[in-house]
Amino acid sequence: MIRLLCAAAALCAAIPAAAQSTDGDWWWVDTGAGQSEEILLVDGEPRRSGDLSELATYIAYREPDPDKVIGVDATVTIDCVRNTVAIQLKRLNYSDGRFDEMTDRGDTKPLPTTTASYQFACTADRAHSRYYGKRPRLGLAAEIFAANPKR
Q: d(Cα 115, Cα 19) in Å, to the nearest integer?
């Protein structure tokens, strides 16, 4: 466990302060991926408009991908009646602090009502979520990865 915490601290130290400073009011929605390669962080409560629920999210990767991407900002829109999800990628974040703005709107896909993200967005069920409050997202991501080692 000590080795994992040291690795998480080293990851944060290696990332420029500007990239770490993105504070939010974070929820971790445990999609089951926390023990693998990525986690889903949601900034604040879902914003509801009729049947639609919108989430401001950050998808953090355990390790940078081959292009050095460490995370993706995205807007996730869930239709709570049709049980679908659409993800609009907003920004790629790199390990050296760079970022690329995006406007990629993904396809609408089915979303089972049993998923943690559906429950969080549409039913206010927080059984598979944990509230962390206002803090820098990269430090939070490193903490969650350290507490949930790869299987």
A: 30
